[in-house]
Amino acid sequence: MIMAVYRAEKAAGHEDRAWLERGYQFASKDYEMWNREPHVAGDTGLSRYFDFGNGPAPESLKDETDFYRKVASYFLLHWEGRNYVADMSGGKSETPVAGAEYSVRVCDVPKTMAKPECEDPKNISLTADYYKGDRAMRESGFDISFRLGRTAVPRITMRLSV
Question: Are 127 and 95 spatial neighbours (Cβ–Cβ below 8 Å)?
Answer without folding.
Answer: yes
